[in-house]
Design brief:
Blueprint (H helix, E strand, L loop, with lengths): L2 E9 L5 E8 L4 E5 L6 H16 L7 H11 L6 H22 L3 H4 L8 E9 L2 H13 L4 E6 L27 E4 L1 H19 L4 E5 L6 H11 L6 E3 L9 H8 L4 E3 L10 H5 L5 E2 L8 H14 L3 E4 L7 H13 L3 E5 L5 H6 L5 E3 L2 E3 L12 H4 L11 E4 L4 E2 L2
The protein binds 2-keto-3-deoxygluconate and magnesium ion (MG).
Length: about 400
């Protein structure tokens, strides 16, 4: 069997998604998510110009060899654009392998290690009442874990915190919008909010908080320490993680568990963090970390060092990525949590899928392969719209982290 065709589909059913579809000489097809928020067309061009010509004629069964060929053969290794493109091919090949075997992909990964995938939802509020009521909404649906994001008095807006009832969508304008950031106001507000939330919901609801890379290590150490009484499950992205050693400083000062990795692309981005036991959860996921093949390699390394998975799952990762992530989550021994933000109805219609949510768990599809597809006719009705993630400036105008 050979790969005879591969096509890139760019669509915007509520937000932008890039999908790779690979077709074999036997007429079996597989899909892979290739979406890189705010840089969609860079991946589409990488696939179209550099990857697809090299795929035609290859044996679709050779997943590992194709991964190595695309990673090493490019000469230019790593990086989000390259690794998202490699991930799309890898995911589509696992989909094809599952369909040919007549098995859901998780069976090819060793079968179930658990009955369901525990997920966390995103609660946010621009007022204390709005936040508490948003968390209650998740609890009522059976969620066992909730990420808590809050407005900061004195700041006009905060990344990822919309008005009650709004959907979460940080990529808005074609050119990055700019907002103002003040660390002192943030560090003052967050512990008070989490104290209220813990008091309201009791000790068993898992609470998470995402810092979105906005602190320095010593500021993050202080925040982690001040949040200890509220027993977070994790404090996410406390600092930008190019300097993996920065986490050592945070670790020395707090027992609040740490999570990082949604922007990582390879095992090399987290090697020190994992082997130094500087984190508790690694947030890499299928689409941005080289597909199922490479993600499993990262999670296997993590398992040796008591680090658990906590894969990224915001709505800018398509239902194809979520479907693939669930097959990994259900199979690996060191699963921790899976992020879950339901997609917009238009998105779900473009990507028909068999995974489902029930009582705080997601369950992967039982159909052969990934159990997700793209309706290309419907996708064609939603043309690409440029959108970018925002940047932050400090009050004196200095460009800060996002
Ligand atoms: O593309 C960026 C989003 O996926 C990101 O802002 C979401 O931080 C995020 C999260 O934890 O889901
Ligand atoms: Mg995050």
């Amino acid at each position: 069997m050979r790969i005879v065709e591969a096509r890139v589909i760019v669509t915007c059913p509520g937000r932008n998604f890039v999908t790779l579809k690979i077709v074999t000489s036997d007429g079996v097809s597989g899909v892979g998510d290739a979406t890189l928020n705010g840089r969609e067309l860079a991946v589409a061009a990488y696939l179209q110009e550099h990857v697809i010509p090299a795929l035609i004629g290859r044996d679709p069964a050779r997943i590992e060899d194709t991964w190595q060929y695309l990673y090493k053969g490019a000469y230019w290794r790593r990086g989000p654009v390259t690794m998202t493109a490699v991930a799309a091919v890898d995911t589509a090949l696992w989909d094809i392998k599952g369909k040919i075997a007549g098995l859901p992909v998780y069976q090819l990964l060793g079968g179930r290690s658990r009955d369901g995938v525990t997920v966390y939802g995103h609660a946010f509020g621009d007022t204390a009442e709005a936040l508490l009521s948003d968390i209650s909404r998740f609890v009522a649906q059976g969620y066992r874990a909730v990420r808590v994001q809050t407005a900061v008095p004195g700041l006009p807006s905060v990344y990822g915190v919309g008005k009650a009832g709004e959907t979460y969508e940080p990529a808005s304008a074609a050119v990055p919008p700019e907002s103002v950031w003040d660390t002192a106001l943030y560090l003052d507000a967050v512990p008070r909010v989490l104290a209220d939330v813990r008091a309201e919901f009791g000790p068993t609801l898992k609470l998470l908080h995402d810092v979105h890379h906005r602190l320095t290590p010593i500021e993050a150490a202080r925040l982690g320490h001040s949040l200890e009484p509220y027993a977070l499950t994790w404090l996410e992205d406390p600092v930008p993680a190019e300097l993996q050693d920065g986490f050592r400083l945070i670790r020395q000062h707090t027992t609040t568990p740490l999570a990082v990795g949604e922007v990582f692309n390879t095992v090399w981005d987290c090697q020190q963090l994992i082997t130094g036991q500087l984190i508790d959860y690694i947030r890499t996921t299928v689409v941005h970390a080289g597909g199922i093949t490479h993600l499993r390699r990262i999670f296997d390394l993590a398992a040796l060092y008591h680090v658990r998975s906590g894969s990224h799952g915001a709505t800018d990762l398509s239902p194809i990525c979520l479907a693939a992530a669930l097959h990994v989550d259900i199979a690996i021994p060191n699963f921790g949590l899976q992020e879950y933000m339901p997609h917009a109805p238009e998105t779900d219609a473009v990507f028909p899928h068999g995974y489902h949510f029930e009582g705080g768990y997601l369950h992967p599809s039982e159909t052969p392969g990934l159990g997700v597809d793209i309706d290309e006719e419907l996708a064609a009705r939603y043309p690409y719209r440029p959108a970018s993630l925002p940047v932050n400036r400090l009050t004196d105008g200095t460009l800060h982290s996002w």
